């Protein structure tokens, strides 16, 4: 949204303290404070990095950033997009730290200490017009009337609710905390204030929906439940499914008559576990929200049915939710996406509008004055021919005046607009531009008064420039070209070939005493049949990967260490070898993945060598 925010970032001067200097680029010093800010979280003392080498790597990084600025990469569209993203991030941080947001967050934490058993039907408002709102409201009222008339709730929810989960849960959410409900502030408030009145609400407008809500309980928050499971899996046959419904009704009756859960499970259940402990959310997701109808330990849920199985559970235990720091972080993450935070975000922009001195004419000029010639919509009209008439002011944004001529040019440029739509769109476009300017000004204020933001901003902008430089230099594009990589290989002195193929015969000389005698015999006879001190083990033609022992010998050959007779002393073995096939150079396609990283690094090293000379990089001698 904030297209001009980057200008403020670009012109902002980031000052650093007089910390210890590490190196200089073009005479400009880079100190330890900047090094710590850029490398924080990436390098740990126990990693054993050589500090000198680390500083050299960091200096190369800063060289690329400096070069990117010299090449004006901070004026490109990609850079502006990155700055827009970071501008929004700063506004988000600012909004989140505001007193109003922190109050909402505190309220969310307090509310999350309790869970409410909620059922609802959700009716979507198709658009924001009054007509569509009334259509949705009347639909919601008709649903409520049917509920009050005795219609089955779960059936109505499956048929009429605009909640995508209604087909699974029949409109019963189970025990939920308000922060999990995320249905809008009005609906949340209704739930919290009506838990002791289990009746269907009037339609509650919250966001783009009407909710018909019933709350029939409140309890301290539970994080997980331990369940005894009795279920049978369904099949395609309706007759079979009817039979398991009858079977499970019998199982349910047996439990109510005092039989143990274990006995019933062994007789009826197909679930692999007798008891199953999981989070409340997972229990609802994998089984049914009907679980929520178990009030106390030992209660049985109603029999429930999904697309895959029919069953019921016995509540064996439940674990209260622990409100520690981890849970607080979890609530904070949820808070970013919920309606309370969106209200804070909108309040922020509303405050910009209210406090900005924004002015607009109370009414736009009559439309007949704007369109003296219908040719404006046919692409024939030229705005410059009417400059005298069209210098008349149309409206003003914060000191900037827009004339009828400005609007006429806009209409001419956007030929598809009708006159009635055009004026609305034009006003909105200028209004959005104005808000972007206000937001940019606010971000500047946020940064300049906060040392932490200044440091983060420099780190972020430098890294974005570094990524742009890497992209613009074309190293990766070059490295994706097989022909360029292969041409580099031919001039680099590198050599990638296939391995030797060897004919090898292995002999076991049994004991250390036989070693000299066996070696002499092999040297004289080249191996041979079994003797009292020499036993053939295996022989054949071996390629790389065929045999671990053969691989070691092939590696020696590939390294230039040739020998026809090899003593493998630790295993009492002698190997007699003969070359079957000498190495051949790999094909271009086989060489490419091996040489590509070398070529990539070579390009970058050459580039950095040029930068070090061009910008007079000087690493200070006393950095340690």
Pick out its properties.
Chitinase A, domain 3; 4-stranded antiparallel β-sheet; 24 helices; 624 residues; disordered N terminus; alpha+beta; 49% helix
What topology does this entry show?
Elements: H1 5-11, E1 21-25, E2 28-31, H2 32-39, H3 51-70, H4 77-96, H5 99-111, E3 114-124, H6 130-148, H7 153-160, H8 166-169, E4 172-176, H9 178-181, H10 185-193, E5 204-206, E6 209-220, E7 222-233, H11 238-256, H12 261-268, E8 275-279, H13 280-286, E9 304-305, E10 309-320, H14 325-337, H15 339-354, H16 367-370, E11 393-397, E12 400-403, H17 404-413, H18 419-448, H19 451-473, H20 475-479, H21 482-492, E13 501-508, H22 515-525, E14 535-542, H23 548-558, E15 565-568, E16 573-581, H24 588-614, E17 618-619
Antiparallel strand pairs: 1-2, 1-17, 3-4, 3-6, 5-6, 7-8, 7-10, 9-10, 11-12, 13-14, 13-16, 15-16
